[in-house]
Write a structure and sequence with these properties.
The strands form three sheets. Strands 1, 2, 3, 4, 5, 6 and 7 form a seven-stranded mixed sheet that branches. This protein is α/β, with parallel strands linked by helices. Helix content is 37%, strand content 18%. The protein has helices at 14-22, 51-54, 93-99, 131-150, 153-161, 167-174, 182-192, 204-218, 233-242, 252-263, 286-302, 307-318, 353-360, 362-366, and strands at 3-7, 39-48, 64-66, 69-78, 105-111, 221-226, 247-249, 267-268, 277-278, 321-327, 345-348, 368-373, 391-396. The protein has a domain at 330-396: Ubiquitin-like (UB roll). The two termini are 26 Å apart. Residues 26-36 have low confidence and may be disordered.
């Protein structure tokens, strides 16, 4: 299952965002380091289902379909707050860093209102620059990766400069736990403008610049501009965008309130929607009514709470994953047990049907023969690039 890491300095609303995404209650308070160990939960990526287009009633196995929207499970992990020196073990640093090794992407939570200092202590809203929240995370991650590469550096230099190995191969070996490949390590050399044949000539600054390039390539980020409902947040959001970050303004508190209200039958709300419906207005207390009015005002200004949009944007735009629907019978659109459109898989942009076969099962990939487009009933070319919403039947010699 795909994994997204929620990271950031202390007291920016990471735990509230985690709860809003997963409805798993974790401690949250207006002081630093409420989270002392990582929390894991399941949230859902929202994609268009093909059931309405194809005129069928589906019965999903690995996801949920609600009125033509397919919700695909994603694991999210809420990590302890980062402080300067986390890469060297300060605070909960090493535990946080180790937990995000397998993350596909990082959701970096920033206090858009500018109401917390570097250590997460409350300050006057608008007095802290949220750009620094993000740069802190970037710096600590890059220094951590640099430390992993630096281990037994003399041996790496010797192997590379005597041509017994290459720098990308050695780096990929050391960073395999982060799913860094030799191709990633090679691309990072180019991005950093460094010569990988003579690492003995690198300065410490060169190594950190290289580690930073590795991080950018293998751990893409999106910024959750949290507390966007606070008046001072508008300037903070603008600053984050001016700094070049991919930003989604959000209010974790608003999303959490709506999901709790929906669970109690107070409102009708689907995550990601721009509005909600109060089911029995006459039963609301004055306090509940005012709270929902404030949420509605925020959603109208921002097109929703921004929380579901974070997951959608990370996987569909930042990572550029493509949702596809594999079936065994291209005519009935079913699996071997008769389930209609049973599964949706997320594959990387540029993936072929053979790549999809391997993702479903290793044996299916090894015995892959060809694939059929369930819409046209035609065999797909071997180099066909899967597109969003494709319905594909894999034919293998194992059948």
């Amino acid at each position: 299952m795909e994994l997204a890491g929620i990271v950031g300095k202390a007291n920016v609303g990471k735990s509230t965002l985690f709860t809003a995404l997963t409805m798993v209650e974790v401690p949250a308070a207006n002081f630093p380091f409420t989270t002392t160990r990582p929390n894991r939960g399941i949230t859902y990526l929202r994609v268009d289902c093909v059931c309405k287009e194809l005129g069928v009633r589906d019965n999903p196995r690995n996801s949920i379909c609600v009125d033509g929207r397919r919700f695909v499970p994603i694991t999210v992990i809420d990590c302890p707050g980062i402080v300067r020196g986390a890469h060297a073990g300060r605070g909960m640093g090493l535990q946080f860093l180790d937990e995000i090794r397998q993350a596909d992407a990082l959701i970096v939570v920033a206090d858009a209102s500018g109401g917390t200092d570097d250590d997460g202590n409350p300050v006057e809203p608008g007095t802290h620059d949220p750009v620094e929240d993000v740069r802190l995370v970037e710096r600590e991650l890059s220094l951590w990766i640099a430390g992993l590469i630096r281990k037994d550096w003399n041996r790496l230099v010797r192997l590379v400069e005597t041509k017994q190995s290459t720098l990308p191969e050695e780096v990929a070996s050391r960073l395999s736990g982060l799913r860094v490949t030799a191709a990633d390590a090679e691309a990072a050399l180019s991005a950093a403008g460094l010569d990988g044949s003579t690492p003995s000539k690198w300065s410490e600054e060169d190594l950190v610049r290289y580690a930073d390039a590795v991080r950018r390539l293998t751990k893409p980020m999106i910024v959750a501009a949290n507390k966007a409902d606070v008046p001072t947040a508008e300037r903070g959001i603008r600053r984050l965008r001016e700094a070049g970050y991919e930003v989604v303004p959000c209010s974790s508190e608003a999303e959490k309130l709506l999901r709790l209200a929906a669970r109690k039958g107070i409102v009708r709300y689907m995550p990601g929607e721009r509005t909600f419906e109060v089911l029995e207005p006459g039963k609301l207390t004055a306090q509940q009514k005012r709270a929902l009015e404030m949420v509605a005002e925020f959603m109208e200004r921002n097109g929703g709470t921004g929380v579901q949009q974070l997951i959608d944007k990370v996987y569909l735009e930042v990572l550029r994953y493509v949702p596809v629907f594999p079936v065994e019978d291209p005519n009935a659109l079913t699996d071997s047990k008769g389930n209609v459109l049973p599964d949706v898989y997320l594959v990387k942009e540029g993936s072929t049907p053979r790549d999809l076969a391997f993702k479903i099962h290793t044996d299916l990939g090894r015995n892959f023969l060809y694939a059929v487009d369930a819409r046209t009933k035609l065999r797909l070319p071997s180099d066909y690039k899967l597109r969003r919403g494709d319905v594909v039947s894999i034919v293998s010699s194992a059948r």
